[in-house]
Amino acid sequence: MQQGVKMSLLLKNCKVIEDGNTILRNILISEGKIISIISENSGNSDEINCEKVIDCNNKLVLPGLIDPHVHFREPGMEHKEDFLSGSCAAAAGGITTVLDMPNTNPPTFTLSDLENKKNLAMKSIVNFGFYFGASADDNIMEIKKAFDSGNVAAVKVYMNDTTGNLLITDNLLLEKIFETAKISEKVVAVHAEGEMVKKAVELAKKCGNKLYLCHISTKEEIDYINTNKTNGNDNTLFVEVSPHHLFLTEEDDNGAFTKMKPVLKTINNQQALFDAVNSGVVDVIGTDHAPHTLEEKREINYPYGVPGCETVLPLLLNAVNEGRISLKKVQELCCENPAKIFGIKNKGFIKEGYDADLVILDLEMERIVENEKLFTKCKWSPFAGKKLKGWPIMTIVNGNIVYSYSNSEGHEKIVLNKDYKGKEVIYNVR
User: Fold this and answer.
1) Is 91 a domain residue?
2) Domain limits at 253?
3) Does any domain span residue 162?
4) Is residue 34 part of a domain?
5) Residues sharing a CB contact under 8 Å with residue 411, sequence separation 6 or more, in sequence order
6) Among this protein's residues, is 288 annotated catalytic?
7) Residue 123 belongs to a domain with what CATH number?
8) How many Å apart are CA 338 and CA 204, to the nearest integer?
9) 168-212 pLDDT tens trace
10) Domains in the chain: how many in total?
11) How far apart are the first and last CA of the chain?
12) Is the pLDDT at 164 greater than 80, yes or no?
């Protein structure tokens, strides 16, 4: 590095995970990119004139989390959430990139729908990408156009009933969708439960697809998936688990406020999910952030879904502190693997030339989840009242500090830079 070069940001004394080991590094950032990662005792950092220097004080720095499963509700349901409020919640949770699901109003079934959603997402303070929805009315031509545009992460197929009218039961149509995705080398993401998991896997094997199974929740599903992965499908079959299924069971039932799809399961199922996380059967933690207002949840016919962006990382870090999962595994599940699976360019890793999407953690900080301090519009969490050890204290998106937390001087201070806007993600050519 040349002397006298003015850098925009220097993170000093960072602990980063390299090859499974925690190593002290300094990270130099300019124009939204990581330009240098140097040893703490190399001396080079002292020779650099930076616009801003942040001493991380030996705290852990992870790549910004990639959440491949959010419902930011826009368009059509902005009273629940929108791209600004949802992205604020994401930033507070250490998430720097989100992939938004298509079941909005209208659903993302056409290129016009997609373009409209992209325009709405420009208010997001984190990076964003989109799924394209498969319609029961056969929108194959629109799916092809969306794939050709290169602007979608995957096609989302609902094979079990969910919110909205997106369920597809026609076998011929399902096969057409899978075949179309194969030709375009795109991932098929499915909402599938029980027997539908098996059906989705068999379709993917028949058509030669990469298949992404959303929010798997049972031991039976895990056992079936594990068998298929060990039979040579580990590079084409990917499994997502949501934090509410990892950290809640049916014994934690709180009526409408713990109802989501899939529903909560038994402790035995929960343990099977954790075992699958640690063994590598599970590839990704996706929040399935699906907020509804308090008023909606109090109705007799309440909607299913819970928020999750702000609590996923504290829950996982608390599990790290309890010895249930390693930091290396958290980084793989929440950062590296989503980037690899969906081909998200220059994200998910702390590497020179990659986007400066980072989260600084305080593994010793203990905080209680408080509804009134959440950034999500719904202002509630199924984990409200729970004390967790390990929290994000700063989130950086494309080299910009979008979220910071301070507990100095005996009081809490949360600052969010709402002036910064995120960017649409770019996908690698497959």
Assistant:
1) yes
2) 63-342
3) yes
4) no
5) none
6) yes
7) 3.20.20.140
8) 19
9) 999 999 999 999 999 999 999 999 999 999 999 999 999 999 999
10) 1
11) 34
12) no
